[in-house]
Design brief:
Layout (H helix, E strand, L loop, with lengths): L4 E9 L20 H10 L10 E2 L8 E11 L10 H11 L5 E9 L11 E10 L16 E3 L6 H11 L1 E4 L16 E12 L12 E9 L6 H14 L4 H10 L16 E7 L2 H4 L7
Helix pairs in contact: 3-4, 3-5
C-alpha cells in the first residue's frame, strides 16, 4: 500500500490581487490569499486526504514572490503511486491557470520535513524606480511591481553605510510593525545581508526611455512583521537626506516600534521574496530498503 507522500513546492505570484499568502477566514474574505488558491488546485487532484498547506514565509497584501515555498501531504486514491514531481508541477499549474500564481518546482521530501522550520534563510529584494513623476509613466511590466519615487538620485553611499549598520544580530523592535503576535516573537534577528545596488527595469531593453532602478537586498533566517519594508523606508529616507546614518543607528538602538518615524514605511508593491534556502541534506528522500 502506498503511503502518503510529502511534497515541498516552490511557487511564485504577483501579490497585487491577493490578501497576502496565507489563507483568509471566510468571514473576512474580500480578497483571497495565495494559499486558498493553491489548496484549491491541490484538491482538484482528488487526493484521498484533506490537504493543508504549510507556507514557509508569510507575505502581506501586495507583496510578490519569485520563490516562496510550502509543504503538504498528498495521498492518491485507489492505492495509486505518488505523483512524479514534474507531473505534479504541470497538474497544479493547469488548475492555477486563471491566477497569477505558478509552481516553479516540486520535491518529494521526508515525512518529517517542515517548510518553515527547516528554512535556512530567506531573501527579499525591494525594487525602486527613480525619477518617475507618476506610476502611469512606468512601462506596463512595472505596474505595481516597484516603488516609483520622484527623486532622480538618492545618496547611495549613505544608504550603503546605513545598511551596514543593520547587518548582524540586533534587537529589531524599532523595525517591526505592531501585530497581535508581537509578544510571541523574539525581536532579536540576525541580518546576514543588507545591500544597495543598481537594478534594471523588466522592460530595460524595450522601453522608449531609460529608467534608473535601485535594488535593496536583505537576507536573514527570518524577519519580523513588516521589517523589510520598514528597513527599506528608513534607508530611502537616508538616501533622501531625511535621516542621517547616526539617526538610523539611534533608531535601531531604541528597540521600540513606536520610535519609527511616521510615513516612512515603503509600500508593499516593490517587495519580492526571491529565495527560501534549505540544506540539500534536508531535502533528500530516503529510499526504502528491500
Amino acid at each position: 500500500m502506498h503511503n502518503c507522500a510529502r511534497y515541498l513546492i516552490f511557487f511564485q505570484y504577483i501579490g497585487t490581487k491577493y490578501s497576502g499568502v496565507v489563507k483568509v477566514p471566510p468571514h473576512q474574505m474580500v480578497k483571497r490569499g495565495v494559499q486558498d488558491h493553491l489548496e484549491e488546485a491541490i484538491q482538484k487532484l482528488r487526493p484521498n486526504n484533506p490537504v493543508s498547506l504549510l507556507v514557509s514565509s508569510r507575505t502581506d497584501t501586495g507583496v510578490h514572490a519569485f520563490s516562496n515555498s510550502a509543504h503538504f501531504d498528498l495521498q492518491r486514491k485507489n492505492n495509486k503511486p505518488p505523483f512524479a514531481e514534474e507531473l505534479l508541477v504541470e497538474a497544479l499549474n493547469y488548475h492555477l491557470k486563471p491566477e497569477q500564481i505558478r509552481i516553479n518546482r516540486a520535491h518529494r521530501v521526508p515525512c518529517d520535513f517542515h517548510a518553515r522550520y527547516r528554512a535556512q534563510s530567506r531573501t527579499y529584494v525591494y525594487r525602486i524606480a527613480l525619477g518617475v513623476r507618476h506610476r502611469t509613466l512606468l512601462p506596463l511590466t512595472e505596474s505595481n511591481l516597484c516603488w516609483n519615487i520622484q527623486d532622480t538620485e538618492l545618496d547611495e553611499e549613505a544608504m550603503r553605510e546605513a545598511a551596514a549598520v543593520l547587518v548582524g544580530t540586533h534587537d529589531f523592535s524599532s523595525f517591526r510593525a505592531v501585530s497581535s503576535d508581537m509578544s510571541l516573537k523574539n525581536p532579536v534577528k540576525t541580518l546576514d545581508v543588507a545591500s544597495v545596488q543598481m537594478g534594471n527595469s523588466f522592460a530595460n531593453m524595450y522601453f522608449h526611455r531609460q529608467i534608473s532602478f535601485l535594488e535593496l537586498t536583505f537576507t536573514s533566517r527570518s524577519f519580523l512583521y513588516k521589517q523589510v519594508r520598514r528597513m527599506t523606508g528608513a534607508l530611502v529616507a537616508v538616501g533622501r537626506g531625511l535621516l542621517t546614518v547616526s539617526q538610523l543607528r539611534a533608531l535601531l538602538e531604541a528597540k521600540d516600534s513606536l520610535a519609527y518615524p511616521k510615513n516612512l514605511v515603503a509600500p508593499p508593491h516593490g517587495l519580492f521574496l526571491t529565495r527560501v534556502a534549505y540544506r540539500e541534506s534536508d531535502l533528500l528522500l530516503q529510499q526504502p530498503t528491500t
